[in-house]
Amino acid sequence: MKLHEYQSKQLFAEHGVPIPRGEVAETPAQVRAIAEQLGGSVAVKSQVLVGGRGKAGGIRLAKSPEEAEQLAAAILELEINGLPVRKVLVDEASEIVTEIYLGVTNDRTQGTPVIIASAEGGIEIEEVARDHPEKIVRAWVDPLIGLRDYQARNLAAAMELPRQHWGEFSRMARGLFDTYWSLDATLAEINPLVITREEKLLALDGKIVLDDNALYRHPELEELRDLDEEAPSEREARGHGLSYVKLDGNIGCLVNGAGLAMATMDVIKGLGGEPANFLDIGGGADAEKVAAAIQIILSDPDVHAMMFNIFGGITRCDEVARGILMALEEVSREVYLVTRLVGTNEELGRRILAEAKMDTASSLVEAAEMVIAASKVSVSE
Amino acid sequence: MSILIDKQTRVLVQGITGREGLFHASQMMDYGTQVVAGVTPGKGGDWVLEGKIPVFDTVERALAATGANCSVLFVPARFVMDAMFEAADAGVPLVICITEGVPIQDMMKVRRYLDQEGVRLVGPNCPGLLTPGESKVGIIPGHITDPGSIGVVSRSGTLTYEVLYALQLRGLGVSTCVGIGGDPINGTGFTDVLQMFEDDPHTEAVVMIGEIGGSEEERAAEFISSSMTKPVVGFIAGRSAPPGKRMGHAGAIIEAGSGMAADKIAALQSAGVRVAEHPEAIPALLS
């Protein structure tokens, strides 16, 4: 789960990281009032959960409250990478001398948190990693001990940060790490961390991504979820315990297991079809879960044909077959369906479907070929 | 004939009185696995599975009474970190964690601690291990594979079954199948298992099933290129997956331009691995 910049910075501030004075607003009039209160120039920043806000005109500098109001009106009309702008953050503008990158994330290979810093701030860290890998410094944190003070100091030294800023930088690194660790984040990032003309260090922009599996420990954070982050169908699927990702194609896929679901999409795509979704019904999927999954797939109007691929280890094929029939009774829209059932009680499962005059297949490739052919017929009609 | 588990492995089931734990303990016994004990705090003294398996309150007591040398965990995600620590502290040398949905921070602590204690962890979020004809520890269906000389290692569950079944249809048997799990941070990686297969005299070739996310496959490719003499056939799931979206598994996500299937396939191919177009094409590449 991703948090907005204003939410992330608020959480940083709660952990002792200095941030610019500012407030979030939903209307141009509110923006003007905040700008008047702050005085001087302000930054008006769209709050959407995608990158590229600056390039899309979603971050603007205003010299007066009137200008801030006008810019906010324009920004609140924007759609950035498909997401509508519903909120803007109004921050006191800073006179920036230096921009630094500071982030904490999980190192999958080491299995520990890693703090990443770079004197090249303000641009995507991936870009720095690609073009100037020597300008990135790292410190790995022992998860059983936590961040040690010398590690933050070492980062400041390795970045060749002027000595007078080491103390403040170390406090910010500590605050950022504490935010990441106490909230079960998978990423906490300040980019840029700026040194202002008054020699102050500030988190000018911030980003936090939370570990969905640990949200039960932080019920207060669940309330920060932005519903625009996922499609309504993805949200509904999550409610049913299904893992669903909407794609652009026209072949609906229902599969048990994430790896097999990806492989099924790959086979369809490889043979010239276009998958409409990723959907993993999980292990031990019962009839009701299958029914919910079918409803969700068919709620996508682009779906013209469906393929079910069930490898029953724990999941019983006869139960899946009954679930399919039960679910189809409740669906008003009819699309072509081929089902591949393998594993526990597969004969029985296939017989149940055959009696209902439904197509079945025994191999993955065979099923994919059948559904692709059907999807093309449906489209040309 | 195998790695990690064989006929001699004495298995303890943590969480044996739960629905999943009980069902799979019975499946393991039917397969011939030596299931010797179960642990559920508060249920010590009970007997389950037609009175054949004693339940203990603690792992320490279960070990003292039965000499178990492997523990498989069907403990809910919220409690499984503690259960893994308990197994390690009691002296279990091999811990298999089936549980899905473990917080990443918990896994970082567990992996660090178990590494320090010299405990081998497989998982979490994995289907476990199967040495055909000898022992199964976890949830891999036993009837879809036969004993043989192919080692199988995978980040996935049902996709692994698919591959085992495809091998069985072509008469190809398996030495051991290891599910390392689909989480971003796990106990045992591809490289660890590849080393074990390389050292196992009864494994003649290896099938490695990877997916998008992380860089484990790239590291495995380096290892194969530098240290493996046995042939490896690969498959990478997720060529059609969009970036930035988590594809079911917590670890299956293309982030910031890394973890893409195409890069993994290229790395494996340059290490001499034959990469299959789809799972059913794997057996042909082994001959």
Question: Would you write up a description of this structure?
Answer:
- The complex is a heterodimer of chains A (381) and B (287).
- Chain A is an alpha+beta fold and 381 residues long.
- Chain A folds into 3 domains: 21-92, ATP-grasp fold, A domain (Dna Ligase, domain 1, 2-Layer Sandwich); 96-222, D-amino Acid Aminotransferase, Chain A, domain 1; 230-376, Succinyl-CoA synthetase domains (Rossmann fold), CATH 3.40.50.261.
- Chain A has 13 helices and 19 strands.
- Chain A has helices at 5-14, 28-38, 65-75, 125-131, 149-158, 166-182, 219-222, 232-239, 258-270, 287-298, 317-329, 346-355, 364-380, and strands spanning 2-3, 22-25, 42-46, 59-62, 79-80, 83-84, 88-92, 96-107, 112-118, 136-140, 185-196, 201-203, 206-210, 243-246, 251-255, 277-280, 305-312, 336-343, 359-361.
- In chain A, the strands form 5 sheets. In chain A, strands 1, 8, 9, 10, 11, 12 and 13 form a 7-stranded antiparallel beta sheet that branches.
- The longest helix of chain A has 17 residues, at 166-182.
- The relative contact order of chain A is 0.10.
- Chain B is of the alpha/beta class.
- Chain B has 2 domains: 10-122, 3-Layer(aba) Sandwich (Rossmann fold), CATH 3.40.50.720; 140-286, Succinyl-CoA synthetase domains (Rossmann fold, 3-Layer(aba) Sandwich).
- In chain B, the strands form 2 sheets. In chain B, strands 3-4-2-1-5-6-7 form a 7-stranded mixed beta sheet, sandwiched between helices.
- The radius of gyration of chain B is 18 Å and the shape is globular.
- Chain B starts with 9 loop residues before the first strand and ends with a helix.
- The model of chain B has no long low-confidence stretch (mean pLDDT 96).
- Chains A and B meet through helix 9 of A and helix 4 and helix 5 of B.
